[in-house]
Write a structure and sequence with these properties.
There is one protein chain. By secondary structure, this protein is α/β, with parallel strands linked by helices. Helix content is 42%, strand content 15%. The chain is built from ten helices and eight strands. The protein has an eight-stranded parallel sheet. The chain is globular. The mean pLDDT is 95.
Length: 288
């Protein structure tokens, strides 16, 4: 019988989903990607959300990267009452924002099951690494359009920010922020966090806050007021410690919620109530 090597064991573990966490009722996954998690039809979406609900995750906001995913997200939000959608063009896809895409996004965001414009913003990591990634200048133009859309429609703006802190904050200041701004998967340091808090933005933390090398991010999570903090999976990515690298889904959200509770020195149930309540208020939708 062949003995499994350490490398083979590591590869096997990376394919295995984490075990179910102990239930923590009241949570809302503020940002996930159901389609990328396998939720491509009503049955698979229901299975993902049943799994999440069994551990206390009562609703999710599923987010799109491009127009194809945006259509999937809106469909998913109509397939299951526990799913809501956010639609926009991810900054790396900003070059796809032509007149047809603008018109379709305008129509999508008017749907009552769509609760946010996003994810939009700036991503300075991928230009130069991927030929398909939009340039920073194209990203800025698309970001400005999405900001205006969120303000006109009166829905929250969900921000993607990667290695573009100052430019992103400058554009938001120059254009004027919508009433609700959500910094999805916040990754900045404590100074960026403080600036966002001072502006009234909500900071949404993913599994990265539990990573061993995330001390500065934990400092950021500590300074956010109770009323401005959210939790998300960004599934299928960013699975929390100790399952980093394994497949992520909304059912894993209690791991990150408990990590935030430990960082902030509160009990798990209180933290879940804060996080879930903030999501319900921010998205202004009948999140179950």
């Amino acid at each position: 019988m062949k003995t499994e090597s350490a490398k083979e064991a590591k590869k096997r573990r990376r394919r295995e989903p984490p075990p179910d966490p102990a239930p923590l009722p009241g949570l809302v996954d503020a940002h996930t990607h159901l389609a990328a998690c396998g939720g491509r039809d009503a049955e698979s979406v229901r299975a993902i959300l049943d799994h999440a609900q069994a551990v206390g995750v009562e609703a999710v906001v599923t987010v799109a990267d491009d127009m194809i995913d945006a259509r999937w997200a809106v469909q998913a939000a109509h397939w299951d009452e526990r799913a809501f959608a956010a639609v926009a063009l991810h900054p790396t896809h900003a070059g796809e924002l032509d007149d047809a895409a603008r018109a379709e996004l305008e129509e999508m965001v008017a749907d009552p099951r769509v609760v946010a414009v996003g994810e939009t913003g700036l991503d300075y990591y991928w230009p130069g690494k991927s030929e398909s990634a939009a340039s920073p200048e194209v990203q800025k133009d698309a970001f400005v359009w999405h900001i205006d859309l969120a303000k006109r429609i009166g829905k929250p703006l969900m921000i993607h920010n990667r290695e573009a802190d100052q430019d992103l904050l400058d554009i938001l200041a120059a254009e004027g922020s919508p009433e609700v701004v959500i910094m999805h998967c916040f990754s900045g340091d404590r100074n960026v966090a403080r600036e966002c808090v001072d502006r009234g933005y909500l900071l949404s933390f993913s599994g990265t806050v539990s990573f061993a090398n995330a001390d500065e991010l934990r400092e950021a999570a500590l300074l956010v007021p109770d009323e401005q903090i959210l939790v998300e999976t960004d599934a299928p990515f960013l699975t929390p410690h100790p399952y980093r690298g394994q497949p992520n889904q909304s059912y894993c959200l209690p791991y990150t919620a408990r990590a935030l509770a430990a960082i902030r020195g509160t009990d798990d149930e209180t933290m879940a109530g804060i996080l879930g309540g903030n999501a319900r208020r921010a998205y202004r939708a009948p999140l179950q």
